[in-house]
Amino acid sequence: MNDEILELAKQILDYTPIKNHEIPDIDLYMDQVTSFMENKLKAFKRSDDDIILTKTMINNYTKNKLIAPPIKKKYSKENMMMLIFIYHLKQTLSIGDIGDLLNFMVSSTDGINIDDLYDKFLLAQKNSSASFIKGLDDKLNFLDKTNTEDKTKNEQLFLLISELILSANIQKRMAEKIIDCYFKDSDNKK
What we know:
The relative contact order is 0.11. The protein has helices at 2-13, 30-40, 55-63, 77-89, 95-106, 114-145, 153-182, and strands spanning 28-29, 74-75. It is an all-alpha fold. The N and C termini lie far apart (46 Å). It is elongated and about 65 Å long. It has one domain (2-182). 63% of the residues lie in helices and 2% in strands. It comes from Clostridium acetobutylicum (strain ATCC 824 / DSM 792 / JCM 1419 / IAM 19013 / LMG 5710 / NBRC 13948 / NRRL B-527 / VKM B-1787 / 2291 / W).
């Protein structure tokens, strides 16, 4: 069963991230933005019915100041990068937390280089994928050590799912704690 689970993990991680040079340098209209995101992020869909990004979502992100407003109804490369950040962050964080986290980029006068930050984000994504496989293998080995003959396959899968969720919850809580400590209070922003 361990090999099957590791194969499932490899399927999840078998995606090509949107590299900086793949994001158009020309400004795009809303329909072009949603089409681009749908095409490039489709590997993250759980089912064909899942929607990556809608016009309403983008308008809400703009209204909530998560991204800069479009200029003449066109979205810049920086807007696109911000939308990619938001897409990944919203899988775990609330929109409020994402706003607190990204606010330093939208309102910064320090000259944040979003291109550079985006490239580092891609490296973090790659590192996270490698760490996930190692962590999953560790979880499977732990379950094997605690395995008894009377455990059914469903019980083993339940325990694995529990391990994954418990780990994800701890990581989410840690991310929220960092946001609360460093990004919520303007006096503490770095």
